[in-house]
Structures are given as structure tokens and as C-alpha cells.
TrEMBL record, chain A:
Residues 1-21 are annotated as: Disordered. This is Asparagine ligase. Transmembrane segments: none annotated. Its EC number is 6.1.1.22. It comes from Streptomyces viridochromogenes. It comes from the Bacteria. PROSITE patterns: AA_TRNA_LIGASE_II. Residues 99-335 form the Aminoacyl-transfer RNA synthetases class-II family profile domain. One of its GO terms (biological process) is asparaginyl-tRNA aminoacylation. It is an enzyme of class 6 (ligase). It holds the Pfam family tRNA-synt_2. InterPro entries: Aa-tRNA-synt_II (IPR004364), aa-tRNA-synth_II (IPR006195), aa-tRNA-synth_II/BPL/LPL (IPR045864). One of its GO terms (molecular function) is ATP binding. Residues 1-11 have a biased composition (Low complexity).
Length: 335, 462
């Protein structure tokens, strides 16, 4: 009952937009979303963070991975990108704003096969956090604190909406009590292989694998130490363990899957250039960012929490499109 | 139109440092003993009557007249000539080995038992697993690069025929940056898509495949990302017949990136993304566009391959190397990182534009590349001067799973756009069957270095 039902429970694609916008389900989701945003801002500002508004386009964006690509924009004759994430800008902002966050709109042209995961939208938002001079553990504490606080806030302010959607307070006991598990990527891979799922040990946990692990867990858990090659060049490599990144995901229980991706960041100029080459990127594209790095970007850690994924976890809807007012599913052409 | 292939007949004597043979240029005084092969039309005789017999006088004079233009083949031949090193007399080290059938043939006995009759050359099964695809022959169509010769109708004809033959096809790097993809809609996508569509229309089910290269410079326009979600490529992806090839170099100019000759207007347009040089003279109508080769270390290669596999899980992962002196280590690194195929371009390879000094003086010959790789840990593909069965069998015996046809394929389709490549391959395949069966073997994978005798070694390795 707490689990998102199989994809058959909700239609795979949204109804026509007008109909969707008039639906009581969307209204309930939006009321939860605005409380989630309120709770997130309260928490982060209480922790000394400053909210900035993120850029929308730039000469480069987060190169990402998993086959998602950026949309092109013709910017006065220059090829610009819509932000897939503003990670590079977060790092560049740290000298002025050592603790900062965005509620950032992002656009990622995800591969069409992700349309049916229930966890992907082309347009989505992140609660995007960066902390100067912090390590992974501090970023994880903030991420866990944020999820706990938002959950508490929503259950305090709109409990009737959640119960009306079939949610029970018991489902969130561990989250509200701040109980989180931690495992490594290696352990997650070993678990999946033991269950007969052919997880690639060098890559991200795939969608199916992530769902399997999420379904068999009753509390949220971090997955640490993804291998190099599975993530962007800005995730810092562990100096003591070459090939292992000082990064993490936070996975929600009961099948809701990944809510957060984060890491310690690489700030060393020469390492950044080398890591760009390792991910097949042309450093020349990143001139403005590398200039900042050369002049000195503070070391940092940070993360992005998917807003729609957070709201889906809170409301228990099957699919991400049900918690977006203007959903765009991968490969589906909609207004 | 005709495409001229610098062949032995028109190649210079190889005793002197030479650059490309060119279409007959203006007559030159025959004083110098060095062959008169400079690409730059020579006009005036020496003004003073000074002569330097035994010295490459004309080349020096040409450089004195035209400077950096003399480093390159005649730009007027760009797009109409296929470039490669001058064929050495008697072939290269690979061609100098002899194919040596034994007397006793236990594998023939196995085949005899299998067939219950004497095997014959028609019993050789040429089917090969090539970089994750199934190929009907141990062959593939090499990349033609972005030169005009390799990107027009000829390439489309070659694609269609490669598909009918059931062999994979590699589409060269720089197709997208040079010929465009998204700008200007359909017209600009056509260079690449025309080849893919021609291939898809003609390919039998379940065999062949399309391989798209990307080099460091292309990463700017994210070729693979674009193609991976392009509906035109979906049939290839769904049938497991799409591969991406990371191009780290090429045989024609090891250590350098791609080079093309462009008109002045186009060059000025490209100057924002590429190095564009006025090597042909300040007022010349043409400019040289250079891409960078990219920087690789063992770790960069390993991680790039891993990144490709993670980002494009439904596509096969190929990697192409220039004939570098550490080719053995490079190939092993690539296989260990999960590459489905490693392509080695011998210094004999390449159809693209290259400075003469690179064509004739730089890089390991294919035979030495294969020797340094030794027994491959995975699928090894070899290119460089292959057009007939003898050289193909030699490369297969030295470890290659399949061999690429580059210049030979373009010339064949130039001769007959409808069936030229098919006929060339028909002849090559017959020679393969004859040679492999003569060695008492019935599949290309059964060939070993024992099947060759290297006169330089003096003895059959055993």
C-alpha cells in the first residue's frame, strides 16, 4: 500500500493538459509541493544557506550521463545549452556564497526508454545545495536533515491531504526519526548480482536495479562510492582509492528510488582538466569555468534533490508526471 | 569523375625523401636525380643555373617558392585524390611474408570427417563476429574521413554495397562538425543519414552493423549523443547493430588530428571551432582546417571507454588507434576496459589529407603493429592497404578478426557505383577461400602466425 503501484496503476502518459490541470489529484500534489518547498527553504535558511536563482542557459552545462542530453539554444550566434544542472555555477559561486542553494529548473532530454520508469521528466526541478569546505558526510547530513525536515513539515501542515492520498504516518516513521542506512556501490552491486540482476559493476545502478533495492528497503539509504566513469568530472576521486568517487545517492524506500545525487567536488584545476578528458569532454568548451578553477574554487560538497521525486515520495503517486503541473515525458511531445 | 589512387605505377622511386605524386606538373629540368614529386607546380628553372646533383634540389626550390604549401599535397587534388604512402617496391613487411601451407593438415581431416567427403575451398566459412556484430565476411568498410572524396555519392554507394555484402560499415569522424547535423535541418543531416539510410535499406536481417566515429573535436557537437536518440538510428539500436568508435588517431598521420582543405569562406566560418591555417599562401583560395588529435593516457582511454559503455549501453564500443609504438599496450588497455573491437590503422592506411612527410615517414607499418599486439585479447580489426586476399589473409593470420577496406572500396565504387565494391569483395572472398583452404583450414579464425613465413626472420616460427 505504501509502494507505488506498478506502472499499470496510473496511465503511462498524462491526459490532455487542461484535463490534467483541473484534476483533484494534481491539486493535492501541488499543495504538498508548496509545503515541501516551504519546508526546504525554512530548513536550509535555518542552516545558514543563502538562496540564489540559477542561470537558465550557458555555453556549457552539466555533461551528465546515462544518455541524457542538453537542449541547444542559439545565443546571438553562439551555441548555448539549457541547464541540465547548474553544478558548475554552484561551484563558481562559493567564494561569494559559501553555503548556497537554488530551486533550479532543469531540462534533460532523457532517453525514450526512461518514459516508463515513473521517475523521469524532461523538465524538472532540483533543490540544489552546495557547501564550501565540506566533505561528503556533511553534505549527507544536510541532505538527510532536509528530507527529514520537509517530511515533518508536510505531515504537520497538510496531514489531511497525505492521508487522503492513502499515506500513513507509519510509512514515514524512519524518515521523520532521521534513520538512514548507508551502503557502498560495491555492496549494492553485490546485492543485485545475488538477486540475479545483471548490474554493471562499473556503472550507475540501473533503473531496474535501483527499483529492486528501493523496494526491499523500509528506510531511506545512501549509496556511496560510485566508480569513476559513472559520473561527471566534478565528482571528486578518492585520493586513497583511485577509481572510486567521493559521491553518493540517497534512495527512498518502498520503490520510490533515487531522490538525491551528490558528492565532494573536484576543485583542482589540473585534475579537472584531466577528468574532463577522461569523460570525453573538450576542456576548451569549459573556458569560463576552468578560468575560475585556475584562480581557485573552494573545495566543497553538495547535492541536488529532485523536487518532483520528493513530492512523489511524499504523496505516493505512481508516476512523476502526476506531480508535475506541466509534465513532459521523455520522447512524448506535449505542450 | 575519376579518383586516382597513388599506386606503384605512378609512385616515385622510393630512394629519396619524397612527397606525394601529383598529376603531371609543369616540366622540370631533369638535373636533379631526386624524383620530381613535389606537389607544387614548378614554374621557373633555377635563375642562376646553380645545380645540386644528388640533392633533392627541386623540393628545396619548391619550398623556397611556396613555403608551407610544399608540405602538403597539391590542394587542387583535394577531394579527388585518395592519399596514402607511396607503395614501396615489393610491398611492405606484411606483403613480403609468404603464405605457407603445410603438408600435413589435421584440420582438413577434421573437416573431411565432418563432411564425409574431401573438403574444398567452397567449404571455408567466412562468417565472422566483428566487434559485436555478425559479418558474412571477415571484412568491414573503413571510415573515409571527412574529405570530399569520402562523403559524397561514392560513400553512399559504398554503404549500400557494404550492406548487401553483410559487412559492417564505419562512418568517419568529423562528419557532423564538417557537414553539420542539426543546423539547416534535413539538408545538413544528409551526409551521415544518407549513408545510414542506404545501409539500412539494403542490409539483410541480423548481419552487419553501423559504426560511428567520434574524435575529441567532435565531442563538442556530441555526435553520439545526437545519434543515440535520433529516430533514424533506432532500427540499428533495436537490432543491436549500432556501435560507436572512439577515434584516437589514424594511419595517415599518426599523432595528428584530422585535416581537410576548405574554401576560404567555409574556413573562416570554421575558424571558431578549429585551427584554420593559410598554409597554401596568403592569397590562396583554400585553407587548411586542422582538428586536434586529443590527449590520451591509459587512464583517459580506460575511463572514456567506460563512459561510452555507461552512457550508450545499447551501442557497441569500438576504439581506433593510430599505429603508435605502444600499440600493444593500448590495445590491451582497450580490451580490458570492455571495448568490443580495437581497430589498428597501419601507417599504410587512410584516405584523408595528410602532410607528405607523415604519409611516407611516420608510424608503424601494419605488420609491426600486429606483431607488437601479439595474440589479441579481443576482437582486433586491421586496416591499411588491403584490397586483395593475400594481404587480408596475412593480417588475419597475425591476429586480426577482420580487415577494413578504405581506399580500395572508394576506388571500386568510383569504377562502378552500382556493383564495384561487391565485385571487388567477390574476388577478395574467393581468394580468401582459396588461401585458407590451401592452409588446411576452413574458417578465418583458424589462421595463425604459423601460416606465414617471414623471409626477414629466415624461419617459420614454431
Amino acid at each position: 500500500m505504501d509502494q507505488p503501484a506498478s506502472s499499470s496503476a496510473a496511465p503511462a502518459t498524462p491526459p490532455p493538459l487542461g484535463e490534467h490541470l483541473r484534476s483533484p489529484e494534481l491539486r493535492a500534489a501541488m499543495l504538498v509541493q508548496q509545503e515541501a518547498l516551504q519546508g526546504a527553504r525554512d530548513y536550509l535558511r535555518g542552516q545558514g544557506f543563502t538562496e540564489l536563482l540559477p542561470p537558465l542557459v550557458g555555453p556549457v552545462t552539466d555533461p551528465g550521463g546515462r544518455g541524457a542530453k542538453a537542449l541547444d539554444v542559439d545565443y546571438y550566434g553562439h551555441p548555448y545549452k539549457l541547464m541540465t544542472s547548474a553544478i558548475l555555477y554552484k561551484q563558481a559561486s562559493l567564494r561569494g556564497f559559501p553555503r548556497l542553494f537554488y530551486i533550479a529548473p532543469n531540462v534533460r532530454v532523457e532517453p525514450e526508454e526512461t518514459a516508463t520508469t515513473g521517475r523521469h521528466l524532461v523538465e524538472f526541478h532540483q533543490i540544489d545545495v552546495e557547501i564550501a569546505d565540506a566533505g561528503r558526510e556533511e553534505a549527507q547530513e544536510i541532505a538527510a536533515g532536509l528530507l527529514t525536515h520537509v517530511t515533518e513539515h508536510v505531515w504537520t501542515t497538510v496531514p489531511e491531504i497525505l492521508t487522503g492520498l492513502g499515506r500513513t504516518e507509519a510509512d514515514f516513521a524512519d524518515v521523520r526519526a532521521g534513520k538512514y542506512d548507508v551502503r557502498t556501490h560495491d555492496e549494492a552491486v553485490a546485492r543485485l548480482l545475488s538477486l540475479g540482476h545483471a548490474q554493471n559493476p562499473d556503472g550507475e545502478i540501473d533503473w531496474t536495479g535501483e527499483r529492486i533495492l528501493s523496494l526491499e528497503s523500509d528506510r531511506p539509504f545512501f549509496v556511496d562510492d560510485y566508480p569513476k566513469g559513472s559520473r561527471g568530472f566534478y565528482d571528486r576521486e578518492d585520493p586513497d582509492r583511485p577509481g572510486v568517487l567521493r559521491n553518493f545517492d540517497l534512495i527512498a524506500p518502498h520503490g520510490y528510488g533515487e531522490l538525491v545525487s551528490g558528492s565532494e567536488r573536484e576543485a583542482d584545476y589540473a585534475t579537472l582538466v584531466t577528468r574532463m578528458r577522461e569523460s570525453g569532454e573538450n576542456p576548451a568548451k569549459y573556458a569560463w569555468y576552468l578560468k575560475e578553477a585556475r584562480e581557485g574554487i573552494p573545495s566543497s560538497a553538495g547535492f541536488g534533490m529532485g523536487l518532483q521525486r520528493l513530492v512523489r515520495f511524499l504523496t505516493g503517486f505512481d508516476a512523476l508526471w502526476q506531480v508535475s503541473a506541466y509534465p513532459k515525458l521523455p520522447g512524448v511531445v506535449t505542450p | 569523375m575519376t579518383t586516382t589512387l597513388p599506386a606503384a605505377a605512378e609512385a616515385p622511386d622510393d630512394s629519396a625523401p619524397s612527397v606525394r605524386p601529383v598529376p603531371p606538373a609543369a616540366a622540370v629540368p631533369p638535373a636533379a636525380s631526386a624524383p620530381l614529386t613535389d606537389p607544387v607546380p614548378t614554374e621557373a628553372p633555377a635563375p642562376s643555373g646553380l645545380r645540386a646533383p644528388g640533392f633533392p634540389e627541386e623540393q628545396v626550390r619548391a619550398r623556397a617558392r611556396t613555403g608551407s604549401a610544399a608540405v602538403f599535397p597539391d590542394p587542387a587534388a583535394y577531394g579527388a585524390h585518395l592519399f596514402g604512402p607511396a607503395a614501396a617496391h615489393g610491398g611492405d613487411a606484411l606483403d613480403r611474408t609468404r603464405i605457407v601451407p603445410p603438408v600435413f593438415m589435421p584440420e582438413r581431416l577434421e573437416k573431411l570427417i565432418d563432411l564425409a567427403r574431401e573438403p574444398e575451398f567452397g567449404d571455408v566459412d567466412l562468417t565472422a563476429g566483428v566487434g559485436g556484430f555478425t559479418a558474412r565476411l571477415p571484412l568491414y568498410l573503413s571510415a573515409f574521413g571527412s574529405t570530399r572524396a569520402g562523403s559524397g555519392d561514392l560513400a553512399v554507394h559504398a554503404s549500400r554495397q557494404a550492406a548487401r555484402l553483410g559487412i559492417p560499415m564505419v562512418i568517419g569522424e568529423n562528419m557532423v562538425p564538417v557537414h553539420g547535423y542539426r543546423k539547416a535541418g534535413d539538408a545538413s543531416r544528409s551526409a551521415l543519414r544518407a549513408r545510414v539510410e542506404a545501409y539500412l535499406e539494403a542490409a539483410p536481417d541480423g548481419v552487419g552493423g553501423v559504426v560511428v566515429q567520434q574524435s575529441t573535436e567532435d565531442a563538442d557537437s556530441e555526435v553520439w549523443n545526437l545519434l543515440y536518440s535520433d529516430p533514424a538510428f533506432r532500427p540499428l539500436l533495436e537490432s543491436g547493430r549500432l556501435a560507436f568508435e572512439l577515434k584516437t588517431g589514424q594511419g595517415a598521420k599518426p599523432g595528428l588530428g584530422g585535416m581537410t582543405v576548405v574554401g576560404r569562406a567555409e574556413g573562416e566560418q570554421l575558424a571558431r571551432r578549429f585551427t584554420v591555417r593559410e598554409v597554401f599562401g596568403e592569397d590562396a583560395p583554400r585553407l587548411l582546417r586542422c582538428a586536434t588529435p586529443g590527449t590520451f593516457t591509459e587512464e583517459i582511454l580506460r575511463q572514456q571507454l567506460r563512459f561510452m559503455r555507461n552512457n550508450f549501453p545499447k551501442a557497441r564500443t569500438w576504439v581506433k588507434f593510430h599505429p603508435g609504438r605502444d600499440i600493444g599496450q593500448a590495445a590491451r588497455t582497450a580490451w580490458a576496459a570492455g571495448a568490443d573491437a580495437v581497430t589498428v590503422d597501419g601507417a599504410e592506411g587512410g584516405t584523408g589529407w595528410a602532410p607528405g612527410v607523415f604519409l611516407d615517414h611516420v608510424g608503424l607499418p601494419l605488420a609491426e603493429c600486429l606483431r607488437r599486439i601479439g595474440r589479441p585479447d579481443g576482437c582486433l580489426l586491421a586496416t591499411g592497404g588491403v584490397w586483395e586476399g593475400g594481404r587480408a589473409v596475412r593480417a588475419l593470420a597475425l591476429g586480426a578478426t577482420a580487415v577494413g577496406l578504405g581506399r580500395a572500396a572508394l576506388v571500386a565504387v568510383d569504377e562502378d557505383p552500382e556493383h564495384g565494391l561487391e565485385r571487388l569483395v567477390e574476388a577478395l572472398a574467393l581468394e580468401l577461400r582459396l588461401l585458407i583452404s590451401a592452409l588446411g583450414k576452413y574458417a578465418p579464425a583458424a589462421l595463425t602466425p604459423d601460416d606465414l613465413w617471414d623471409p626477414a626472420q629466415g624461419a617459420v616460427p614454431c
